[in-house]
Design brief:
The complex is a heterodimer of chains A (about 240) and B (about 120). By secondary structure, chain A is α+β, with helices and mostly antiparallel strands. In chain A, about 30% of the residues lie in helices and about 15% in strands. Chain A folds into two domains: about 100 residues, Ubiquitin-like (UB roll), CATH 3.10.20; about 130 residues, Alpha-helical ferredoxin (Fumarate Reductase Iron-sulfur Protein, Chain B, domain 2), CATH 1.10.1060.10. Chain A is elongated. Chain A starts with a strand and ends with a helix. Chain B is about 80% helix and about 0% strand. Chain B contains four helices and no strands. In chain B, helix 1 packs across helix 3 and helix 3 runs antiparallel to helix 4. In chain B, about 15% of the residues are buried. Classes of the chains: A alpha+beta (about 240), B mainly alpha (about 120). Chains A and B meet through helix 9 of A and helix 1 and helix 3 of B. The structure holds iron/sulfur cluster (SF4) (2 copies) and FE2/S2 (inorganic) cluster (FES). The site of one iron/sulfur cluster (SF4) has 13 residues of chain A, from helix 8 and helix 9.
């Protein structure tokens, strides 16, 4: 029986002077369970371990974490996808302040989301029932609306690490494009002019870490390219 | 909206375009130079001198030099805003880069149009 050796980042700012790694030995009984299941087994051994989770099926986006160096959702990442040998190293999402253990402070991430005005803006008179959209126009939102705001992408992006206060980041930009691409939104110009500074969009260096980690298989880099094209045709 | 007064074109888009355009100009210049060296079998001082006597060559070279300066500024400005978090350090670095690039361009004018 081989035991899984898990090393997890621990930090409680109220009692610890510095973060440290705590080792666990977990018996998975040979089953290929999800990382989140392993975390709950760890919590049985030491219930001071803190992490976020809710839906445990890849829908809510609350258990984004760094598993053996790669960001992802613990609940839909099977051990066979991440474990190297018999070792698993769990860390909080990189680049954000740690509140405790695997729980990070997502305030900056949400601030950037808020900044792109993630709601439809339409200055035309309201129709009596609803604003209609052709199936073709609706298709343009595929690959954009599915984002669950798990922050795996933005916290794997070096540009977001260096400038989380000014660079919107892949997640926010994917959402920005989701509203730029929506035929029912009439504030395209204002949205674009809010993004035309040297940081918000243009800090993207096309590293594509975001694409590599998105648990929903979305492509923020492509959306960022579309925003750049829109900025270009709007300005020339 | 995020603003930053030290960037080149006051907008991310113009910086980005400038970065692309200057890269193309530098590439064309390099290709031209490679082509020139390949086509001239034995390069003499007089041939080299004659080439740089041409007004178009001087303008082309000057354009490339300005492109190098713009490209370097945008690139180094970006790097400095990524990695230099202390304002003082960043300002000193940026001033140094501007000064150096300015000197190179003026020097280039002197080389191209001087005696
Ligand atoms: S492609 Fe852009 S947004 Fe995505 S990780 Fe790279 S720099 Fe960040
Ligand atoms: S784009 Fe993907 S990785 Fe980024 S927040 Fe949305 S779902 Fe998560
Ligand atoms: S717990 Fe909801 S996405 Fe993992």
């Amino acid at each position: 029986m081989t035991m899984l050796k898990v090393s997890v980042y621990r930090y409680n700012p109220e009692t610890d002077s510095a973060p440290y790694m705590q080792d666990f030995e977990i018996d998975t009984k040979g089953r290929d369970v999800m990382v989140l299941d392993v975390l709950s087994m760890m919590k049985e051994q030491d219930n001071s371990l803190a992490y976020r989770r809710s839906c445990r099926e890849g829908v809510c986006g609350s258990d984004g974490m760094n598993m053996n160096g790669k960001n992802g959702l613990g609940c839909i990442t099977a051990l066979s996808e991440v474990v190297q040998g018999d070792r698993l190293v769990l860390r909080p999402l990189p680049g954000l302040p740690v509140i405790r253990d695997l729980v990070v402070d997502l305030s900056l991430f949400y601030k950037q989301y808020e900044r792109i005005k993630p709601f439809l803006i339409n200055d035309q008179p309201e129709p009596s029932i609803e604003r209609l959209q052709s199936p073709e126009d609706r298709d343009k939102l595929d690959g954009l609306y599915e984002c669950i705001l798990c922050a795996c992408c933005s916290t794997s992006c070096p540009s977001f690490w260096w400038n989380p206060d000014k660079f919107v980041g892949p997640s926010g930009l994917l959402q920005a494009y989701r509203f730029l691409a929506d035929s029912r939104d009439t504030s395209t110009r204002e949205r674009l002019s809010d993004l035309d500074d040297p940081f918000s969009v243009f800090r993207c260096r096309g590293i594509m870490n975001c694409v590599a980690v998105c648990p929903k298989g979305l492509n923020p880099t492509r959306a960022i390219g579309h925003i750049r094209d829109m900025l270009l045709s709007n300005a020339t | 909206m995020v603003t930053n007064i030290t960037n080149f074109g006051r907008s991310g888009l113009s910086d980005w375009l400038m970065q692309r355009a200057s890269a193309v100009i530098m590439l064309v210049y390099v290709l031209f130079m490679v082509g020139y060296f390949l086509s001239v079998s034995d390069l003499s001082y007089s041939a080299w001198h004659a080439l740089f006597q041409q007004t178009w060559m001087r303008i082309f070279t000057m354009l490339t030099l300005i492109s190098v300066a713009a490209h370097a500024w945008i690139g180094l400005w970006t790097v400095s805003t990524d990695y230099m978090k202390a304002t003082g350090v960043r300002l000193i670095f940026q001033s140094f880069v501007i000064l150096a690039l300015f000197a190179f361009v003026v020097w280039g004018v002197q080389v191209l149009w001087g005696a």
